Amino acid sequence: MAKHTLIAYVEDVPGVLSRIASLFRRRNFNIDSLTVGRTEQPGVSRLTVVVEATEAGARIVEANLYKLVNVLRVDDLTHKPSLMRELGLVKVTVTPQTRSQVLELTEVFRARVVDVDEATLVIEVTGTPEKIGKFELVMRPYGIVEIVRTGSVAMARGHELMSAAPPLVRTEASVAEHHHDSGHSMSV
Amino acid sequence: MKLTGAEIIWECLLKEGVDVVFGYPGGAILPTYDAMTKYPKIHHVLVRHEQGATHMADGYARASGRVGVAIATSGPGATNMVTGIATAMMDSSPIVCITGQVGSKAIGTDAFQETDVTGVTQPITKHNYLVTKAGDIARAIREAFYIAKSGRPGPVLVDITKDAQQSTVEFDWEAAAPRLPGYRPNHRAPAAEFARAADLINSAQRPLILAGQGILNARATAQVLELAKFAGIPITTTLLGIGVIPASSPLNLGMMGMHGEAWVNQAIQQADLLIALGMRFDDRVTGNIKTYALNAKKIHVEIDPSEINKNVPVDVALIGDLREVLGELKPSIKKANHAGWWATIKAQRGDAAVRDIQSLPDNGHLYAAHVINDIWRATKDRDTIVVTDVGQHQMWEAQYYRHEKPRSLITSGGLGTMGFALPAAIGAKFACPDKEVWVVAGDGGFQMTSPELATIAQEKIKLNVAIINNRFLGMVRQWQEFFYDKRYAATPLTGPDFVLLAEAFGLKGVRVTSRSEVAKAVQAARKEEGTVVFDFRVEQEDSVFPMVPAGADLDKMIRRPKQDILAETGADAEWQMPSANGGKVASAAPFVSNGGAKHFRSSAKASRR
Ligand SMILES: Cc1ncc(C[n+]2csc(CCOP(=O)(O)OP(=O)(O)O)c2C)c(N)n1
Hints:
The complex is a heterodimer of chains A (188) and B (609). By secondary structure, chain A is of the alpha+beta class. Chain A has two domains: 2-81 and 160-182, Alpha-Beta Plaits, CATH 3.30.70.260; 83-149, Alpha-Beta Plaits (2-Layer Sandwich), CATH 3.30.70.1150. Chain A has four helices and nine strands. Chain A starts with a strand and ends in a 32-residue tail after the last strand. Chain B is of the alpha/beta class. The longest helix of chain B is centred in the N-terminal third of the chain and has 15 residues, at 50-64. Chain B starts with a strand and ends in a 72-residue tail after the last strand. The interface between A and B is medium-sized, with 37 and 29 residues. Thiamine diphosphate is lined by residues 389-393, 416-419, 442-445, 468, 470, 472-476 of chain B.
């Protein structure tokens, strides 16, 4: 078992997230994180799914995602050079004694303070999920009031994976065009 | 052309070639029913329960290969469809369900008869739609038909709000062509995989083909037989694969799995190569997955990539249309006969292969196996469809009716839905009016959907309905006998007088209590113009053999007791039932009965004790 990062491009239609969530529940797949957002292509959303799975298990997750009619394409970034980022907001209690230490650690993590009052700091930290986990760990002794994490987003590095650009949602399509995978159109 | 949404629904159904729909009206679908009167070309069958409508659509689809259509109102009408939709999903049957929904403004308010039907059916449909605008109806229906029948078929539901049915828009069929950029029904396996598959086949000593329903969907029977014959490979079928390969073909060993033939399950465990064609390694065919076919490499030819490595890890996967895949594979296959392997299988088959239950002595008891065998003898020369329910009778049908043609057995395999047979048979009869259609049902399952007898009477269709009446929920009783020390909790079951019941619906009822009457009664019923319902009073505590207990190794089967009238002979008759009391069958538990039970013989069998 290892973490697998899958990118799924989906048609932005009502119910699509529920279909994906339902699929993961129904097939008993182990989701680590799931994030969704728009892409540069109107009508297409992009999901980053991190699942705990064996290699064969990841293929089954991918195949099941493809079975959803609204899923346009799935890319597995697990074994490709890629960037993985997450954002966290951490609210920490500070006293006049600890404030400077907290600020120093914030600096070390290249995080930044986004809100200050007499008793707390809110720190925005971005990076890999591991980095955010680490930041949480070092802040814990000072007293974490609350924490929120976005879940991971991922992107392939470099230009080879141009296919990682979102697929176009075609406006005109005939039944005949769908044979032999031709329904799988791309913007490149 | 300006039309109401309701009219557009019917226009689309016409364009899709629909000639019959199965449905039940209600408030939210009323505009559609009102518009129906303008479309006399489509025949509407009024069902007695919406579950029946879905099973009829399913039976129609399985008998013909065309898409079946079921219609219901919102809320309870739609939720009544759930079992039928799940049944179609598990067995990859192409149906389209159209449901009415409350007005689009009322959605989310818990309006009268509002249910989130697309939510409810999401995991049991291939895809579904909620349509809130008349202008979106045509495309949703076109896509629904296309999705239902393409790739791995399955049910699609289209939920249409009442206001969408009522408002008027321009109807443009051409502009409503499917727009499905993410839908990939067809795949083609990479060339390298073909070479690897061919190598495995050409070097195998003990290969075996596992034939499933996918062969039927791909219409690849001829290709499979050709491959098997050329390369000398025996074939075994799944339950849903029955009929795909003719029972009389010398290449066909019979059914695999929980109630499959003993020699087949043994052959699977001994094989060095399994070639799985359009089947999905269901737990009912594998038994204990950890010990399943450990000696065999596996090739999986399958249209649905998500089936690959799901239950059983395979060595080569050829994803695609079976007929195309086999066509492409064929030139690289070497001729072979595997004489040694065939000899091994024949030896294991022993006397059982030549057993003819017709020649067994009549001990005065009526056995389901004889009933089924007599129905087969009477109908084998005619194009016949048998539709079964779920339980012991279903397995006996699979064992004793010898199906020669694809689509000649219709049965709920994946979901095992009791109540399926009668409505599915009605659908099958509408799909194939010229074929003889038989229902084989248990007294339990029959009672689940028996009100559809009224549909039969209203539609004046001719079916032959064989109720295999053992006054038990037989299959569950069998499990209780084998695994729960004969504690028959909630399995003894009373029923109506089925003869009187049939007559109450204006149909003919016939009771048969002895073996000598069966053949004659069956012939007489076939000549009747209307539907005949049989009450076959069979042995109450007979069991289906062989049986692989759930989760047991595939070749660890419980065999029929030697003394049993239907016992196989020779090496096959080893009595191996694992049981607390040293392999002996305990005496029958007292039979809970009502007055109707007096027709029955004592349930205990003298010969067993
Ligand atoms: C809807 C439904 N409920 C329960 C079951 C569990 N079940 C499987 S077989 C069976 C007994 C069937 O009895 P009957 O219809 O009399 O047929 P028999 O086994 O006696 O031939 C039951 C209850 C089921 N398959 N479907």
